[in-house]
Amino acid sequence: MNKDKRIEINLSSQTLCLLENDELIKQYPVSTAKNGAGEIMDSECTPRGHHLIAEKIGAGCEVNTIFVGRRASGEIYDPLLREKYPERDWILTRILWLRGTEPGRNLGDNVDSYDRYIYIHGTPDDVDMNICGSRGCVRIRNLDIIELFDLVDEGTAIDITES
Length: 163
Description:
Blueprint: E1 5-10, E2 15-20, E3 23-31, E4 49-57, E5 65-68, E6 71-76, H1 79-84, E7 92-100, E8 119-123, E9 138-141, H2 142-151, E10 157-161
Parallel strand pairs: 1-10, 8-9
Antiparallel strand pairs: 1-2, 2-3, 3-9, 4-7, 4-10, 5-6, 7-8
């Protein structure tokens, strides 16, 4: 694990920044929760505070691989599937599963980010970035999640802030 790398997610600007030794390496547009910031179970809000990458899922999977229950379903996303399942929350390509580190804020009881299945994950290419639209996760373009996935390790620190 590279302790010099960390991720900052800004809910106001809808950006994810990867830093190494406090220098910006990469910045990506993202889409966080349509319901805004919040930590409560089933709120469909994006949790704030200090987190880490608990698990990396999907190494080597094809772009647009569909994940269900954190497992590759064997399907590849295409617009026809969206027409068939318009209410589905598409989790594609790679998953970075987050674990909160602040007891009572984003760890434990009914505020646990890991138990809420909060991820940074790929999304269909036509989903607008820089606009809140997810059900709590951090959506990112498929090619961006592949790049980010390869640049970070499990245990990488993440801060999610509103400003």
